[in-house]
């Protein structure tokens, strides 16, 4: 073996092999999804000895060119005095090096918005490129599986993120010889067979694990639950209205705040395609002057997809036009960037010396265009609202459901309301700063796609400046109002300076600005999702029955508060429970194997954490597949290249490979309905998202559920959100088998809770309640 160290002093890699202390030969420790570590001690062999420096690159390799370790010294060597020799004092230099990825931990990740609907490998490649482009070859990084969302927190190190991404995708990462390798667990597999002539029975230790579970309760965070609709009536005086529940997202947060302060676009935020050199950044503005004349040729595209879930405000910026233009600004595209493929955006077309600004919906112009005025600024904003906060389920993995075939991951369908508005600002008229915005489009797109590319600019020929761009995750609430005998229109929520009409306070109140006080008799409806603890309990009746014996009821239960991957809904908790029960049996599940490098299992040249080890050892009743968790390599013979390998392995029962749990105490619901594995996916009826109050009087309300009653079933209505089922009539208002019905109203403030049910036995119900809240005078 050879030990080469490059001190980056211009001399290139030096051969330190002759200086290795024979009493402390090299030792390499490889751990799953952690940097590998090399420990080696050197003794000076003469006056020309160069003490390795902090940051030096270290390579320990075989003469056939195969590297056992590559990395960097992350601290200066530790000097150890050995005594006095003919030439003076003699020191031992103890070195500790970490594998190649450790150099990335010295850099701070840039601030960037969360990765959305990206593959795990893509996210890992992006973070690596953001830190040190080209430092690691990423050709061996596989996509593995899709992450619904991942937040690259700059407070964490690169290795922390790499480990978490690998956990969520049930994958492993490592670095070697300047390459980053990322693959599903078990991509390389070796067999440990006791019939192999090189098998070492005294080197094998197997540990049994009591891992059978058939009753799993999974707890996540807070999820969106009830579909809430609050109804109020204005009186020309009242500015504040109190919501009946706390919205799922009760405060807004800015995901992107681009002020264009540099001399070029930030590559962590934007991707620029500009064959005609029409786009530049200067004076705190994005400047666009011209284009190729082709649709989709000159584009400024946001680095991440936008998830059409919950409520978002896309402030495309304050735009000042310098001449007639042809472009789409602030476009959302489910596929490629083109006018025909634009789901929603602002189409800019020439109008003599000015421009028309018009809504572009599903590739076609919609509504009345607004004609620009020379010298005016135009703040373009897209708002969208949907009752589904998440548009893709979380994915959970197990040994038999690895990357690409995990539990969950399904797309979630939803209707999305889009509101496109223009705030016309005259710099010579301060009053225009708080004037109302002009709404160019306000309607619902049915079954809208879950994710879109956001192109701030798609310029055929654009002449303008853009002062800023913001992406805001807003309070997940939609506000509409209607004067008597008029149609409902969306009330813009946000800051008064942005042309909004009202705001949602963190205290749970809807507050209108004084210029937009609701008129007398004006109907107001606020739609949002309530919130509650994410939890599910799943049982395996067949396993429970098989384990019953005497006084033992057969239940083997656990409660897991899952931190990663985060279960964001109750359906996610159910899928997580399935993954945790998959393959959970009693028996041998972990152990270690000591052998020489010449006799590695399956004639392997080397073995790494993340490799699969198939044990076929009948004499130990061991016939299972485990994943290598740690490999300790102790070099015994440098010249002969013989090393001792200690391989530690375990399956998912012994130590989960795709979950991270936390012990945080949580308050669980009093009654958690257990469901069987067979019921998952077919236990609940659709929720009554479209249910509305259609008429309110002093003594009654009319309700339209938005859907016909299930055959043999109907709609159950209660005074409170408890007691669902045919066996409880305590808080029951009634059960109805028609789409519309009338209910009594007993007070000014009244709540009605609805779910639908069918004719099965036991009856299936909606998963979540629809809550209709009335707060209006009894007149």
Describe this structure in words.
With 779 residues, the chain is mainly beta. It folds into five domains: 2-102; 107-184, Phage tail protein beta-alpha-beta fold (3-Layer(bab) Sandwich), CATH 3.55.50.10; 189-211 and 585-650, Elongation Factor Tu (Ef-tu), domain 3 (Beta Barrel); 253-474, Sandwich (Jelly Rolls), CATH 2.60.120.200; 692-775, Sandwich (Immunoglobulin-like), CATH 2.60.40. It contains four helices and 52 strands. It has a 15-stranded antiparallel sheet that branches. Strands 1, 2, 3, 4, 5, 6, 7, 8, 13, 14, 40, 41, 42 and 43 form a 14-stranded mixed sheet that branches. Strands 15, 34, 35, 38, 39, 44, 45, 48, 49, 51 and 52 form an eleven-stranded mixed sheet that branches. Helix 1 (120-131) runs antiparallel to helix 2. The longest helix has 12 residues, at 120-131. It is flat and about 105 Å long.
Explain the layout of strands and helices.
Blueprint (H helix, E strand, L loop, with lengths): L1 E5 L7 E2 L11 E5 L5 E7 L13 E5 L5 E7 L4 E8 L2 E12 L15 E5 H12 L14 E5 L7 H12 L1 E6 L2 E6 L4 E5 L10 E6 L5 E19 L6 E3 L10 E6 L11 E4 L5 E4 L2 E6 L7 E10 L3 E11 L4 E8 L10 E8 L2 E8 L2 E8 L5 E9 L9 E2 L10 E2 L7 E10 L12 E8 L5 E16 L2 E5 L3 E6 L6 E2 L11 E3 L4 E4 L10 E17 L1 H7 L9 E8 L5 H12 L5 E10 L15 E6 L4 E16 L4 E9 L9 E3 L11 E3 L15 E5 L3 E5 L9 E5 L13 E5 L3 E5 L4 E9 L12 E6 L4
Parallel strand pairs: 13-41, 15-39, 15-52, 38-45
Antiparallel strand pairs: 1-2, 1-5, 3-4, 3-42, 4-8, 5-6, 6-8, 7-8, 9-10, 11-12, 14-40, 15-38, 16-37, 17-33, 18-21, 19-20, 20-32, 21-32, 22-27, 22-32, 22-33, 23-24, 23-32, 24-25, 25-26, 27-30, 28-29, 30-31, 34-35, 34-38, 36-37, 39-44, 40-43, 41-42, 42-43, 46-47, 47-50, 48-49, 48-51, 51-52
Helix pairs in contact: 1-2
């Amino acid at each position: 073996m050879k030990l080469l160290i490059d001190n980056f002093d211009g001399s290139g890699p030096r051969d330190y092999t002759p200086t290795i202390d024979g009493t402390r030969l090299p030792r390499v420790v490889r751990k799953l999804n952690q940097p590998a570590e090399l420990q080696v001690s050197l003794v000076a062999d003469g006056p020309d000895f160069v003490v390795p420096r902090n940051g030096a690159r270290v390579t320990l390799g075989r003469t056939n060119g195969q590297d056992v370790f590559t990395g960097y010294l992350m601290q200066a060597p530790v000097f150890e005095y050995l005594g006095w020799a003919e030439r003076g004092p003699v020191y031992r230099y103890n070195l500790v090096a970490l594998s190649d990825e450790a150099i990335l931990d010295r850099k701070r990740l840039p601030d960037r918005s969360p990765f959305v609907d990206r593959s795990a490998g893509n996210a890992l490649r992006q973070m690596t490129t953001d830190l040190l482009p080209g430092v690691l070859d990423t050709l061996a990084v596989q996509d593995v599986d899709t992450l619904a969302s991942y937040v690259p927190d700059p407070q964490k190190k690169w290795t922390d993120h790499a480990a978490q991404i690998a956990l969520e995708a049930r994958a492993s990462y490592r670095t070697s010889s300047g390459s980053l390798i990322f693959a599903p667990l078990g991509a390389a597999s070796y067999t440990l067979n006791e019939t192999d002539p090189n098998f070492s029975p005294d080197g094998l230790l197997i540990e049994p694990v009591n891992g059978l579970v058939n009753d799993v309760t999974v707890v996540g965070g807070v999820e969106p639950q009830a579909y809430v609709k609050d109804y109020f009536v204005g009186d020309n005086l009242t500015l504040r209205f109190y919501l009946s529940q706390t919205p799922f997202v009760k405060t807004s947060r800015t995901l992107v705040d681009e002020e264009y302060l540099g001399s070029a676009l930030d590559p962590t935020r934007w991707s620029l395609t500009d064959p005609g050199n029409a786009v530049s950044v200067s004076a705190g503005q994005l400047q666009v002057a011209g284009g190729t004349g082709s649709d989709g040729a000159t584009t400024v595209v946001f680095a991440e997809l936008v998830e059409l879930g919950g409520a978002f405000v896309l402030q495309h910026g304050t735009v000042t036009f310098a001449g007639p233009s042809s472009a789409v600004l602030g476009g959302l595209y489910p596929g490629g960037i083109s006018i025909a493929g634009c789901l929603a955006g602002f189409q800019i077309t020439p109008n003599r010396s000015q421009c028309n600004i018009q809504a572009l919906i599903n590739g076609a112009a919609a509504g009345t265009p607004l004609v620009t005025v020379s010298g005016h600024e135009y703040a373009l904003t897209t708002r969208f609202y949907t009752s589904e906060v998440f548009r893709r389920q979380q994915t959970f993995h197990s040994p038999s459901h690895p990357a690409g075939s995990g539990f969950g991951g399904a797309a979630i369908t939803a209707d999305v309301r889009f509101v496109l508005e223009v705030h016309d600002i005259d710099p010579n008229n301060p009053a225009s700063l708080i004037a109302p915005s002009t709404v160019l489009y306000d309607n619902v797109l049915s079954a809208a796609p879950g994710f879109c590319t956001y192109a701030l600019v798609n310029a055929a020929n654009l002449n303008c400046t853009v002062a800023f761009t913001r992406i805001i995750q807003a309070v997940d609430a939609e506000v509409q109002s209607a004067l008597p005998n008029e149609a409902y229109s969306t009330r813009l929520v946000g800051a008064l300076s942005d042309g909004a009409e009202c705001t949602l306070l963190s205290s749970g109140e809807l507050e209108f600005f004084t210029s937009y006080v609701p008129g007398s008799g004006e109907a107001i409806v606020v739609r949002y999702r309530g919130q509650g603890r994410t939890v599910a309990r799943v049982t395996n009746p067949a396993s429970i029955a098989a384990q019953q014996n005497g006084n033992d009821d057969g239940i083997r239960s656990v409660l897991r508060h899952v931190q990663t991957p985060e279960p964001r809904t109750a359906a996610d908790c159910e899928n997580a429970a399935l993954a945790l029960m998959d393959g959970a049996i009693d028996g041998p599940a972990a152990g270690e194997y000591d052998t020489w490098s010449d006799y590695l299992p399956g004639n392997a040249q080397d073995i790494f954490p993340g490799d699969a080890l198939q044990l076929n050892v009948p004499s130990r009743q061991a016939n299972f597949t485990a994943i290598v968790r740690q490999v300790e390599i102790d070099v015994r013979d440098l010249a002969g290249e013989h090393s001792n390998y200690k391989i530690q392995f375990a399956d998912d029962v012994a130590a989960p490979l795709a979950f991270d749990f936390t012990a945080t105490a949580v308050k669980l619901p009093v009654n958690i309905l257990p469901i069987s594995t067979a019921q998952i996916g077919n236990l609940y009826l659709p929720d009554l998202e479209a249910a509305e109050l259609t008429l309110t009087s002093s003594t009654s309300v009319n309700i339209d559920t938005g859907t016909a009653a299930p055959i043999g079933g109907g709609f159950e209505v209660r005074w409170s959100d408890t007691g669902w089922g045919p066996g409880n009539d305590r808080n029951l208002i009634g059960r109805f088998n028609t789409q519309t019905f009338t209910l009594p109203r007993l007070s000014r403030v009244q709540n009605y809770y609805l779910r639908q049910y069918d004719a099965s036995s036991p009856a299936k119900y909606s998963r979540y309640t629809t809550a209709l809240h009335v707060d209006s005078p009894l007149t």
